Amino acid sequence: VAPPVPAMRLAALLAALRPVLPLVLGLSLGCSLSLLRASWSQSGAEEQCLGAAGRTGPLGGAARPEAADGRPGPGHEDFRPRIVPYYRDPNKPYKKVLRTRYIQTELGFHERLFVAVLTSKATLNTLAVAVNKTVAHHFPRLLYFTGLRSAKVPHGMVLVAHGDERPIWLMYETMNYIHQHFGSDYDWFYVMQDDTYAQAEQVKVLVTHLSINQDVYLGRAEEFIGGDEQARYCHGGFGYLISRSLLLKLHPHLDSCRNEILSVRPDEWLGRCIIDFLGITCVSQLQGQQYHTYELAKNTEPEKEEEEEFQAALAVHPVSDVTLMYRLHKHFSRIQLDRAYQEIQDLQMQIRNLTSLTPAGEAGLTWPVGINAPFLPKSRFEVISWDYFTEQHLFSCPDGSPKCELSGASKADVSEIIESALEQLNSRYQPLLRFSKRQLLNGYRRFDPTRGMEYTLDLLLEAVTQKGHSHVLAKRVSLVRPLSKVEIIPMPYVTEATRVQLVLPLTVQDLDFVANFLDMFAMNTLDTHDNALLTLLFIYHPYDAQRVSQVDVFAGVKAMVGELEKRYAEVKIPWISVKTEVPSQVKLMDIVSKKHPVDTLFFLASVWTEINMEFLNRCRMNTISNWQVFFPVHFQEFNPALVYRGEQTASSSTDFLRDGHFDRHSFAEACFYNSDYMTARTKLAADILDRDEVLESMEVFDVFLHYSGLHLFRAVEPGLVQKYALRSCNPRLSEELYHRCVLSNLEGLASRSHLAMALFEQEQANST
After folding, report:
1. Which spans does this entry mark as compositional bias, Basic and acidic residues (predicted)?
2. Is 762 helix (H, G, I), strand (E, B) or coil?
3. Which of 84, 179, 572, 606 has the fewest CB neighbours in a 10 Å radius?
4. What is the pLDDT of residues 99-154, one digit of tens each?
């Protein structure tokens, strides 16, 4: 008998719902439990509030106070952010907000560590110099404090002399000076003597593990003679660390300490001052960090010291002579290098062990382990080329020649790489084999910006076994000099408000381009009220100078200048007339330099330059008085007759970079300060001894390169664009200058593809 139809439908429905029944039951049970939990929590909270309101005992007093509006009260430590609405009184005049120079100043950030070295007139040129040569470059800021200074201060040391050699007075004045000049800039202050050797890197690591919110007086704790057993002062010979908060609290009491506390030792005087007025004693251990020190005995040999206390010391005292200071520095530097190498090996082992767990597996392990993989080019234009070299020659020269002698830094680099390769081979195969170099067969190197300098060497080696048998073999080795820690080079602060003095030399051959230059100058500087002035330098040939009363070749230019001065009443454009057959850039600059103040920022321009505000700002920022000069590489447009050949019009001047190239042969444009030029020119005059013919073979770039000692910043400048023009090369200049001018004209014609197309079309036209 068939089952009834409703029963069949119910069975089919249950069969369809069976897979989701656990989900439905789980959701129902979860919702029920959450509702029950919410009701219990509400009732418990109400009872607790009622109980707290009805009791006045300690439990009731432990409740966190709240304000009437529901926000946390003064005893509540749960800080909640709230929006503070901006309101400005319309009745008060608006005052412009002055922003700080650096964002870290506005945000209240401080530098980490300041170091003060206490020295004397007797040891300034000995122990203080040794401290400066060993550890000074490891600290971000280090100053030397002395009572009386010698007649000549050692080079590279910042010295502060207080005028009195009394030890207590020196300590008092030093603390006052540090608070006044650096109290608001640094978090930690480390004070040491010049007969102390401190491990700079370990001191820097120490301060990174300490909290800046506490009053810290950390060093080697010593007992006062006949004083309280609980009170301690920090021994000055081993250095001590003071926090910024402690220095700020101590400063108001320094005068009282000077008048009330009598002591012979300055470190005892400072420790007693801190204890009496602040109640803080010196400690050797704080926040889990130990200040390790070691006291040197007489006739100590640092190389033979094997005590663990000596190896872990942050400060060593007393250092009796300069030689011992250098030996200590060598010993501790070797210890730090061994620790660094061991840490590198441990990290490489961990990387190898974890590589198998990565998706790439063992194939993802790079060489060397822990260094970035080589750069993978995405097109042929991104391929990094290898430079070939031998032990005597380099086949990729800076001047473009195919072969040049290996010298200077490149020679030292190659020698060091070969020595390192032999050292690695011997460390791997000894004592079974011992290698010595016969010859470098081939050498290749390239700079990979993702990992560093890569080398491939083909070495002809002589391998000697333990039994004395030798064999000559060729072996290829690969080495990498990885990029080390990136450091920010400190640079002086410059602004964009400096006035730029443009200097434009003009010859008769430049007359056709002057109108365009003046139009661009008026549009981009005078109309925008940029802080820039222009001085014209008219260079007359002796023949034209004799006829200037009848026919002035620069009369049209002077008329244009007059029109500009009428249009811009506040603008004056002076000009200087010079008569010469050889327009030497240095001689012309000598004339201009004498007519301007020493703090003038010059921009030596050419008539083909298109002046714009973007470049002028870059000229201001890249030129730093007594520090750096700027020689931009302008962008030179190609000859439009060869590039476009009448088929298409030249692109507009608003394009970023038109068809052209950066002319590295031209040094005509330069940004520099007059004071820097005058200093370099004085050194040049003492060198050439009135031989003016030497100046005809030099440019301003050569003057700064050989006689200034400043940084020469030469970089491509996309904001400095020049239209195509065939320059007239003066054959009376030096051979090098004339050759560079000819090369600039030839390379400025067109690109290789454009020249090839022009030759192809010319051959087709000739064949027909």
Report:
1. 66-80
2. helix
3. 84
4. 555 666 666 678 889 999 999 998 999 999 999 999 988 998 999 999 988 778 88
